[in-house]
Amino acid sequence: QVQLQESGGGSVQSGGSLRLSCVASGYPYYMGWIRQAPEKEREWVASIPRDGSPTYADSVKGRFTISRDNAKNTLYLQMNSLKPDDTAMYYCAADTRWYIHASSWRSWQYWGQGTQVTVSS
Fold first, then answer.
1. At a CB cut-off of 8 Å and minimum separation 6, what does 11 contact?
2. What's the rounded Cα separation, in Å, for the pair 51 and 9?
3. pLDDT in tens, 74-102
């Protein structure tokens, strides 16, 4: 069982930056961020395995950076050049398995409660 707690959401103007954090209990292999905008389906944003390289959705590539500190069991998402289209509830997700299809949001085992990010134009 893995429990996740996000923090760092908020409101920012277009072009601004925010940093999300997620503290995990346990030792998940994969960790990632998934978001859901109002009236839209959940969308995978980025993920990173415990000992590998991160991957990103095309919509955030070059603007967002995912990282993790395994010693602290903490996941981060640095979001730069934010756009109104980035407005969503951002969920931290984790999985103990190494073989998941990480870019499919339905694959993930464990979810946090979410933190709201609002970007105004």
1. 118, 119, 120
2. 26
3. 999 999 999 999 999 999 999 999 888 88
Q: How many residues belong to the chain?
A: 121
The closest of 26, 19, 7, 21 to 94, measured between CA atoms, is 26
Q: Which residue shows structure tokens 């979001």?
A: 79
| Distance in angstroms (rounded) separating the CA atoms of residues 26 and 32 | 15
Tens-place pLDDT, residues 12-36: 999 999 999 999 998 899 999 999 9
Pairing state of beta strands 88-95 and 110-111?
Answer: antiparallel
Q: Which residues pair with 12 in a beta bridge?
A: 119
Q: What is residue 92's three-state secondary structure?
A: strand
